[in-house]
UniProtKB/TrEMBL annotation:
Signal peptide coordinates: none
SUPFAM superfamilies: Inosine monophosphate dehydrogenase (IMPDH) (SSF51412)
PANTHER family: NITRONATE MONOOXYGENASE-RELATED
Record's keyword terms, sorted: Detoxification, Flavoprotein, FMN, Monooxygenase, Oxidoreductase
TM regions (residue ranges): none
InterPro entries hit by this protein: Aldolase_TIM, NMO
The protein's name in its UniProt record: Propionate 3-nitronate monooxygenase
Protein source organism: Microbacterium soli
Superkingdom as given in the UniProt entry: Bacteria
Entries under Gene3D superfamilies matching the protein: Aldolase class I
Amino acid sequence: MHDLTALLGIRHPIVLAPFGGLSSVALTAAVSAGGGLGSYGLYGYDGERIRATAAALRRATSAPFSLNIWLPTGDEVRPGPEHDGYARGLAALFAEVGIQPPPAPEQYLPTVEEQLDAIWEAAPAVLSVVFGVPPVSAVDEAHRRGIRVLGTATTVAEAVALADGGVDAIVATGAEAAGHRASFLRSAEESLVGLVSLVPQVVDAVDVPVIAAGGIGDRRGVAAAFALGASGVQVGTSFLVTRESAANDAHRAAIRSTAADGSVLTRAMSGRPARGVPNRAVREIEASGAIAPFPAQNWLTGRFRSIAGQRGLGELQSLWLGQSAPLARWDAAAEVLAELRAGIPGSGPRDVRVRG
């Protein structure tokens, strides 16, 4: 088994899942300071905001941290005449928070080149990517600067492509995981492999460390991941419910009240499949039958979601969570880290009971 801690310069082989839109400096720093790898999702961040975020992270912790970006898949749409029609389809939800359908912006997302330029300046310990294999030039530049590169795979074929592309470790993400399915070789619907099946097959197929993600909520999931051959774990929902995260009370309440079979994969909020709660916004958008392509849908719903978040209106937010949400029982990041560490082989005698 590979030594993930030595590779990433951390004390414990525990990675915080990068939350696109829900990351916080406090949570990222808490996980890093606690010996894991804190991650910060930069979805939608331009260069200036990336630089400011990295500076805030360095003020909060001297420990290694990871910055995460979404790679373009080539099917992203740009603002055009279709925008107004997409916006009108969401008019009722805009009205719910008291705003008019917004006009098209100059761009829905900053370019990945702008993001990478800022990341090189920020010099995090780790760059992690989703939705593809990073360009060879980016991997080479990262390595030249001493930055490790993590790629995200939802199938064995994706893991092999990432390993061939030179990444340092692979996050094998099972279908149980919260948020967006980061599939890139085939559609997300054709790439729904559970973690127990995915991890050992990826371990057998590649010669880099494999980090298990999806459905790991406590020490038992950690122990299972290592038994499957993983070199580390990535955990999202159990950290998302903590007070250090950027989730609001409505989101935390949804995590604590949603059963394992209560989440759905939906394109409603972003135009790409993601796992979360089928709340009112999801149900109404899906019922309309009109979902704009990515990233137009994500930009548009973001206009009412941000206001809903400020007001604690859970029925109008993206309530991302994984299938192990019922295991998210801790209030602080340090408590989650302690629970997860108890499942690492060699951590000492383990009491399999979990605090309620």
